[in-house]
Amino acid sequence: MGNDDARIDMTTGAIPPRLFHLAWPLVLGNLLQTLYNLADMFWVGRVSTEAVAAVSLMFPLSWLFVSTAMGLTAATIALVSQHVGAGNDRRADAIVAQTCLLATVVSVALAILGFATRHWLLFWIGARDAVFVEALAYIEVIFLTLPLTFLFFAFRSSLQGAGDTKTAMWLVAVSAGLNIVIDPFFILGWGPFPALGTQGAAVATLIARLFATAIGIWILVKGDWGVQLHLRDLRPDPEILRKLIDVGYPATIDGWARSFAAVAMAALVARFGPAATAAYGIGVRLMSVSWTVAGAVGQATATGVGQNLGAGAPERAVAVARVATLATMGLLGVAGGLVWLFPAPAIGVFIDDPATIAEGVVFLRIVALSWAFFGGLMVIQGAFRGAGHTKAAMALSMLSRWVFRIPLAAVLAFGAVAVTVGGFAVGPVSVPAVDVGYTGLDWGVAGLWWAYAAAAVASFVVGVGWFLRGTWTEAVIEDSGDGDADAREGSVPETTDD
């Protein structure tokens, strides 16, 4: 199996320090990933407002594909961590190989489908005129990165399930640094390179992800970091693939729900013009810092929960989730307060257009104070995913976005829907008539931001209630009782334990 020193065992010892050691590399890695997204926006902001608007519109669409990869690999984290907790190391290796196989097939299919429908996709999310041209140049290259993105997530989730979060963090750091360094060369045409604008940002992303994915696969094959990719395990295993899909599909639907909700919000924002769209894109990227921290702690929580449930310690799994949720909410509450106090400088880092900055200030002043609730819910969802109860996490995402946020956004921004029923006569017959109109609030673009904040609070309350019920503390594997023997013999056990 290789050297297991990189693993962190969450089944023993004091929870806060072990959770911290598991979470900080994920937090730093996600912050570095966010940094290179912000670097794209920074350099694209030197091109034009239309270029910023184009990349802003692409953010939810790009997130659609990233969230699909995250959904597929959510099952990997749950299954690998629970098998590691139960001592079934060899079974964990087999899951890693099947994850890589599944990720490759799905990502290639999505890349082909996306490229074939790219014009329709851009038109649907509201890209028009110069924004459409810039967005098209960007997305055509991004589709080429999909297999690389999926394979990197397979690598990252495999090591994370085994309790190693540092290795992926260092690789993300190097990849992000490479992207930041080469961004201006491709976007603005520094040196001998042509100025490619938004397409240059996509090319830089492609190069950075190719580097990270190649190193990640090499690490898995070498097998000195807690789990190992055995080439012979790449032969399709229907049992494992079925389990990965069964546990993973709710997380994938969860990701799609979030992505389509983001696309729907972007389409609503686009109705208010390029300045509002650009402000939204910059504001969401700043907000993604809070998602980054909460998502990383949620991932660490998933590993801790999975290991403890695999080891038969549900009470400790609950304790891990509780500590992680409270710590995350405290941290993001402070961060949101700072952004609320200084919104203009935060937006002004990326663009100097006064209209965009003004719109961005309104966004941050409304949304920043809800960051703690966003974060708390994400950690609770991480606990559910680590337990393998991905349907619960999916339901919370659906509720947050499609029951609370989107309907409320439409009502607050554009007015409440009023339906009146009357009638008119056609000869001797009275015919009913339905008149549909818009009345009421009509808060404009600020209504969209208020919907964001209100939905975060409401969905967090529901998530806490679900968590306190305790129905999620059941593992999704059955311990065969011979995990150590499996690890020593180096063969996949002929069991149905996952």
Can you describe this structure?
The chain has 498 residues and is mainly α. The protein has one domain. It is built from 16 helices and 2 strands. A two-stranded antiparallel sheet has the order 1-2. α8 packs parallel to α14 and α9 runs parallel beside α12. It is globular. The two termini are 20 Å apart.
Describe this structure in a few short sentences.
With 498 residues, this protein is mostly helical. The protein is built from 16 helices and 2 strands.
Taking the sheet with the most strands, its summary is:
2 strands, antiparallel
What structural class is derived from the secondary structure elements?
A: mainly alpha
Secondary-structure element order, N to C:
HHHHHHHHHHHHHHEEHH
Termini separation comes to 20 Å
Number of domains: 1
Number of helices: 16
The level of helicity is over 70%
Strand tally is: 2
Topology:
Elements: H1 15-44, H2 49-86, H3 89-116, H4 118-124, H5 129-161, H6 166-187, H7 198-222, H8 238-270, H9 274-310, H10 314-341, H11 343-348, H12 354-367, H13 371-386, H14 390-414, E1 416-426, E2 429-439, H15 445-469, H16 483-489
Antiparallel strand pairs: 1-2
Helix pairs in contact: 1-6, 1-9, 2-3, 2-5, 2-8, 2-9, 3-5, 4-5, 5-7, 6-7, 8-14, 9-10, 9-12, 9-13, 10-12, 10-13, 12-15, 13-14, 13-15, 14-15
